[in-house]
């Protein structure tokens, strides 16, 4: 038995793995069914436009993955691969065109953008009802005040995993490490809305380890590989690892590691997401979910 209040664990304790990959596959199946029903009702297929500027190989892989999964979910995918030297005016003109295009229900600009392009200005140019990343100021503000909004895909994916694992989270102490607009801040707001007591640790936090040790729910999104060690984790806690860093191993292969030192954490946590196979697949599944939500917003005026 593992729970967040147990103070000692048997020496052979192993956290249970949170299967994001499997959960995401089930989600995509449900989305596919909903997309078909949406098509029956409106004669419209939800369409997602993904814009990638520059040729970062890792981003190209993600963007291709998104396109394949969009098709599998029965939706249309429109890829826009723009050269590194694209001007902000050109990018804004493309977004304007996609905003007005009735075949496009969701628009995503892959981040980070090359130097010279202002990610905030570009993201804000996307119509709020097509902003499937939920990163524009309207959606971010609506989330902050508790109105319905398009929710950033990664924190939404983490929330769905936590709800599935834990159910009611009221009164639990959730600690989020990382305060980015992309993950940490919206994650903290979502956990607050679940009734958690939420702490946010960031670069200036004095003793992040001591704070983390108080967490019943620990979400780590720092981009700093294996930052969180086994002794940062309260025995039995639920750990969500958002980080993904690609490293080269001694035998010349590459491997993905998270922001949590997994081998240590698995001996202490009650439940933990692996990397890969944890949060990453949920991010893409939530992008598809948001695209369908956006299409409903545009054709039905709400996403019920
Ligand atoms: N506007 C914007 N929205 C994003 O959501 C966004 C972005 N920009 N820029 C880059 C990051 C990164 N990201 C990932 C999505 C899926 C996996 C994923 O599926 N990961 C697999 C492994 C994939 C592999 O093997 O490389 C896993 O964790 O199991 C990872 C990372 C979305 N991002």
UniProtKB/TrEMBL annotation:
Belongs to the tetrahydrofolate dehydrogenase/cyclohydrolase family. This is Bifunctional protein FolD. Its EC number is 1.5.1.5, 3.5.4.9. Residues 152-298 form the Tetrahydrofolate dehydrogenase/cyclohydrolase NAD(P)-binding domain. One of its GO terms (biological process) is tetrahydrofolate interconversion. Catalyzes the oxidation of 5,10-methylenetetrahydrofolate to 5,10-methenyltetrahydrofolate and then the hydrolysis of 5,10-methenyltetrahydrofolate to 10-formyltetrahydrofolate. It comes from Acetobacter oryzoeni. Homodimer.
């Amino acid at each position: 038995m593992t729970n967040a209040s147990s103070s000692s664990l048997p020496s052979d304790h192993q956290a249970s793995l949170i299967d994001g990959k499997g959960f995401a596959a089930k989600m995509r199946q449900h989305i596919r069914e909903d997309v078909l029903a949406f098509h029956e009702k409106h004669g419209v297929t939800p369409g997602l436009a993904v814009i990638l500027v520059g040729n970062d190989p890792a981003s190209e892989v993600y963007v291709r993955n998104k396109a394949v999964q969009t098709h599998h979910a029965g939706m249309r995918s429109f890829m826009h691969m723009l050269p590194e030297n694209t001007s902000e005016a050109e990018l804004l003109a493309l977004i304007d065109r996609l905003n007005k295009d009735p075949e496009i229900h969701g628009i995503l600009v892959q981040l980070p953008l090359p130097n010279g392009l202002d990610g905030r200005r570009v993201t804000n140019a996307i119509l709020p009802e097509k902003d499937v990343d939920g990163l524009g100021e309207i959606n971010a503000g609506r989330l902050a005040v508790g109105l319905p909004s398009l929710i950033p895909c990664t924190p939404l994916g983490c929330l769905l995993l936590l709800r599935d694992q834990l159910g009611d989270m009221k009164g639990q102490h959730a600690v989020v490490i990382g305060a980015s607009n992309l993950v940490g801040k919206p994650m903290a707001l979502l956990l607050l809305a679940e009734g958690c007591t939420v702490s946010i640790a960031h670069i200036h936090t004095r003793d992040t380890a001591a704070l983390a040790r108080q967490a019943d729910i620990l979400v780590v999104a720092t981009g700093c590989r294996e930052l969180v060690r086994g002794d940062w984790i309260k025995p039995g806690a639920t750990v969500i690892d958002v980080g993904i860093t690609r490293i080269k191993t001694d035998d010349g292969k590459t491997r993905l590691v998270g922001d949590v030192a997994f081998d240590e954490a698995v001996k202490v946590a009650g439940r933990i997401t692996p990397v890969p196979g944890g949060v990453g697949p949920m991010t893409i599944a939530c992008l598809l979910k948001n695209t369908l939500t956006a299409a409903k917003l545009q054709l039905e005026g709400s996403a019920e």
